[in-house]
């Protein structure tokens, strides 16, 4: 079974502060991890994938297999980063994409 | 391509009525997913199809829910009879073929309210 846990439903930071959205997963095989973002009144969209090792909009996420984590980080949060963020896992045996419960990030001015 | 298209965008119905949600995936995508989003549970996978065939419907809450994909360009999610606890935003998503499991493209969602 595959499971994704985002322990924080709500996260509030001030503009310019560092932000970290936590994600832990459970999967017996070799997973693919993703972060999706949903801005207000917009559709859910892919933010980044661990296999790409990319930085999107200043966000990065490193897969830590030892801790089974894939936390999303940004050194300096911006107001436009305010959104709902979902961590997701895709297993190797099929296309089932499992999402965490989501974290609502609010960046205050 | 206009992306994944869902209709209607909003639906308000009375308890006990039948509700049908519609989805048009992106052309060329062979995976289609139906998700439900609520404040309490976040995003839940209800069912997904590959090449129009249902692969995993273990997330469908109960027999009141059914989904079909009669062809590669259309899918429906039906709730009969609807109940207030079905109120949620329902998302359809599609993925291209190949090992791009996580690259799901989402529709705008249908906000369902059952009163």
Q: Can you walk me through this structure?
A:
The complex is a heterodimer of chains A (109) and B (115). With 109 residues, chain A is an all-beta fold. Chain A contains no helices and 11 strands. Chain A has one domain: Immunoglobulin-like (Sandwich). Chain A has strands spanning 3-5, 10-14, 19-21, 24-26, 32-38, 45-49, 60-61, 72-74, 83-90, 97-99, 103-108. In chain A, strands 2, 5, 6, 9, 10 and 11 form a 6-stranded mixed beta sheet that branches. Chain A has a 3-stranded antiparallel beta sheet with strand order 3-8-7, with no helix packed on it. In chain A, strand 5 (32-38) and strand 6 (45-49) form a beta hairpin. The radius of gyration of chain A is 13 Å and the shape is globular. The relative contact order of chain A is 0.35. The mean pLDDT of chain A is 90. Chain B has no helices and 11 strands. Chain B has strands at 5-7, 10-13, 19-24, 31-38, 42-50, 53-56, 65-71, 74-79, 88-95, 105-106, 110-114. In chain B, the strands form 2 sheets. In chain B, strands 2, 4, 5, 6, 9, 10 and 11 form a 7-stranded mixed beta sheet that branches. Chain B is globular, with a radius of gyration of 13 Å. The termini of chain B are far apart. The model of chain B has no long low-confidence stretch (mean pLDDT 92). The interface between A and B is medium-sized, with 22 and 24 residues.
Report the sheet with the most strands of chain B, covering strand number, pairing sense and barrel closure.
Answer: 7 strands, mixed
CA radius of gyration of chain A? 13 Å
Oligomeric state as shown? heterodimer
Q: Describe the global form of chain B.
A: globular
């Amino acid at each position: 079974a595959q499971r994704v846990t985002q322990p924080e439903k709500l996260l509030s930071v001030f503009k310019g502060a560092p932000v970290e959205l936590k994600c832990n997963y459970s999967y017996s095989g070799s997973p693919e991890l993703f972060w999706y973002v949903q801005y207000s009144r917009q559709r859910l969209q892919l933010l980044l994938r661990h296999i790409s090792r990319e930085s999107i909009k200043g966000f990065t996420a490193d897969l830590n297999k030892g801790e089974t984590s894939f936390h999303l980080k940004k050194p300096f949060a911006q107001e436009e980063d305010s959104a709902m963020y979902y961590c997701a896992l895709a297993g190797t045996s099929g296309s089932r994409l499992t999402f965490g419960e989501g974290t609502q990030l609010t960046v205050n001015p | 391509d206009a992306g994944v298209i869902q209709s209607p965008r909003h639906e308000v119905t009375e308890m006990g009525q039948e509700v049908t949600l519609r989805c048009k995936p992106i052309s060329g995508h062979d995976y289609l997913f139906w998700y439900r989003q609520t404040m309490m549970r976040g995003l839940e996978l209800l069912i997904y199809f590959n090449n129009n065939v249902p692969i995993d419907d273990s997330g469908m809450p109960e027999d009141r829910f059914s989904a079909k994909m009669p062809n590669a360009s259309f899918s429906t999610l039906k709730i009969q009879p609807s109940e207030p606890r079905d109120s949620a935003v329902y998302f359809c998503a599609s993925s291209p073929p190949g090992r791009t499991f996580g690259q799901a493209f989402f529709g705008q969602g249908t906000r369902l309210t059952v009163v």
